[in-house]
Design a protein that fits this description.
CATH architecture of the largest domain: 3-Layer(aba) Sandwich
Cofactor: pyridoxal 5'-phosphate
Shape: globular
CATH class of the largest domain: Alpha Beta
Number of strands: 14
Helix content: 40-55%
Bound molecules: pyridoxal-5'-phosphate
Protein name: Pyridoxal phosphate-dependent decarboxylase family protein
Strand order of the largest sheet: 4-10-9-8-7-5-6
Family: Belongs to the group II decarboxylase family.
CATH topology of the largest domain: Aspartate Aminotransferase, domain 2
Structural class: alpha/beta
CATH superfamily of the largest domain: Type I PLP-dependent aspartate aminotransferase-like (Major domain)
Keywords: Decarboxylase, Lyase, Pyridoxal phosphate
InterPro entries: Aromatic_deC, PyrdxlP-dep_de-COase, PyrdxlP-dep_Trfase, PyrdxlP-dep_Trfase_major, PyrdxlP-dep_Trfase_small
Number of helices: 18
Strand content: 5-15%
Distance between the termini: 99 Å
């Protein structure tokens, strides 16, 4: 074929067959046999891997794993799900970090419940997008019911609303966005003519405790606030915000003409599981009408706890609350929400697009979640919580969370009684922050090195995974207990392993002449 002197290839029989052939991979009524086979095969692989997982981690290094993954030719498909799963076994499943394992004790990753996994399979297949009614229908209403349910557990009134998000960081960002807009509106309303936005922005401040999550500072940066916009107030010995220090900062801001756009209280700090004194903080916020945001990314599990709900008393006085179901409701990533006491506050995230949610859909009372979200296309993550509540119920989730909180208390007592270790504070939730204390030479450099080494050696052995953190400049170890299957015997075993690694490290150090104790001449 020729067109203006150029040769044009007719659509060859080859490309036509290729497209036809590729269509067998589409999920639809014609391919259900393949869908069933493929999914069942995938489930078998995972089940098989879980059955054979003896350690939470293989201990592989990124240097060893990277070539396996870069060596795969992505332009040459295997054309067979079973072969692709065989390959996946080598590059992922064999060496993944397994949160269901009782000796995974590191970060805020929970084992997940089966009803949520079932929901995950359903929601990806149907693939609803929760931005608009016309892409989800019932999904939109189910998400709304769950937001209302959560708001009810928080103790908010009928005006409450919210939105599912990708995680606590996004929830915190959105909360602070809403708070910023409210603060700017409030400041502008008080003055004629209203000051320009760019004049007000540098005066905005957020107050949070020194144990608050880093996403607060990160959000402030994304929201265009000054680098020093987040005022960090000290915590008490239990790592809870000191209300007196908050009061002093509020007073200082007032004197200096700074605009406090939000006070962030943390209900469950990431390291210490400490819950800021919510009633006292709410009291201070209410005095000047300040926005109170409660970051309950971790502590939200208490909303369903049969015995500890009172630890969250005061949360109902917040303007906004972050809840991470993927932290303490045993939900797979992602499952999270931002809940606000007054749904009208969400309007600061509302924009209209002719193709998606024209303003007339509001008049027609068609529910559009995109009006409340920072995202547009959005997963139906809410279905996981829905099936969890419908199959096992909230009390069962709360009972699981209670169990890990009890276990952390027991682990804390074990550590207090163990002279090899030092503990920072008793957690209100399920973390334990501690460190190994060298018996001979207790200076901080030696202790830091021993704890850093012990954590890495333990991870490399794959026997257990624990976290590390810094407290007052010193290196500590951290257990985050979220697995009810983790028994006290597991904890005893991990402590022995940690102490063993630390002792070996100290012995090597001193025999190599690095230890301070060998440098020091006996007096
Ligand atoms: C984990 C955590 C976050 C962040 O949540 P992601 O879901 O990881 O984005 C925020 N705040 C606290 C207190 C957390 O523990």
């Amino acid at each position: 074929m020729s067109f203006q002197g150029h040769t044009i290839e007719a659509p060859s029989a080859r490309t036509a067959t290729a497209a036809e052939d590729a269509r067998k991979h589409l999920f639809n009524n014609l391919t259900l046999a393949d869908y069933r086979r493929s999914m069942a095969g995938g489930i078998e692989r995972v089940a098989d891997r879980i059955a054979r997982t003896e350690r939470p981690f293989s201990g592989i290094s990124p240097q060893r794993l990277a070539p396996e993954i870069s060596g795969i030719d992505l332009d040459h498909p295997l054309n067979d799900p079973a072969a692709a799963l065989d390959e996946l076994e080598e590059v992922y499943l064999r060496d993944a970090v397994y949160f269901h394992h009782p000796r995974y004790l590191a970060h805020l990753n929970c084992p997940v419940v089966i009803p949520a996994l079932l929901a995950e399979a359903v929601l990806t297949a149907v693939n609803s997008s929760l931005d608009t009614w016309d892409q989800s229908a019932g999904g939109t209403l189910i998400e709304r019911r769950l937001v209302d349910w959560t708001a009810g557990r928080i103790g908010f009134g009928v005006d409450a609303d919210g939105i599912f998000t990708s995680g606590g960081s996004q929830s915190n960002l959105q909360a602070l966005l809403l708070a910023r807009e409210e603060a700017l509106a409030r400041a502008a309303a008080g003055t004629v003519p209203p000051p320009a936005r760019h004049e007000l922005l540098p005066r905005l401040r957020v107050i949070a405790s020194e144990a608050s999550h880093f996403s607060v500072k990160k959000s402030a940066k994304m929201l265009g606030l000054d680098m020093d916009a987040v005022i960090v107030v000290p915590t008490d010995r239990s790592r809870r915000m000191r209300p007196a220090a908050l009061a002093a900062e509020l007073e200082r801001c007032r004197r200096q003409g700074l605009l406090v756009m939000a006070v962030v209280a943390t209900a469950g700090t990431t390291d210490f599981g400490s819950i800021d004194p919510l009633p006292a903080i709410a009291e201070l916020c209410e005095r000047d009408g300040n926005w109170l945001h409660v970051d309950a990314a971790y502590g939200c599990g208490l909303l369903v706890s049969p015995t500890r709900r009172q630890l969250l008393d005061g949360v109902e006085r917040a303007h906004s609350v972050t809840v991470d179901y993927h932290k303490s409701f045993f939900q797979p990533v992602s499952s999270s929400a931002l809940v606000v006491s007054d749904g009208a506050l969400l309007r600061h995230a509302t924009y209209y697009a002719d193709y998606l949610n024209p303003a007339r859909t509001v008049e027609q009372r068609i529910p559009n979640q995109v009006d409340k979200s920072l995202q547009t296309t959005r997963r139906f993550d809410a279905l996981k919580l829905w099936l969890t509540l419908r199959v096992m119920g909230a009390d069962a989730v709360g009972a699981l969370f209670d169990e890990v909180v009890d276990r952390a208390a027991a682990a804390h007592d074990l550590l207090v009684a163990d002279p090899r270790f030092e503990v920072v504070t008793r957690s209100q939730l399920s973390t334990v922050v501690f460190r190994y204390l060298p018996q001979a030479d207790r200076d901080d450099t030696t202790a830091d090195a021993a704890n850093l080494y012990a954590r890495e050696a333990l991870a490399a052995s794959g026997e257990a995974v624990v976290a590390g953190t810094k407290v007052d400049g010193k290196h500590y170890l951290k257990f985050t207990l979220l697995n009810p299957e983790t028994g006290l015997a597991d904890i005893v075993q991990v402590l022995d392993l940690l102490a063993g690694h630390a002792e070996r490290h100290l012995a090597e150090r001193s025999s190599a002449g690095h230890g301070r104790s060998t440098d020091r001449s006996p007096s």
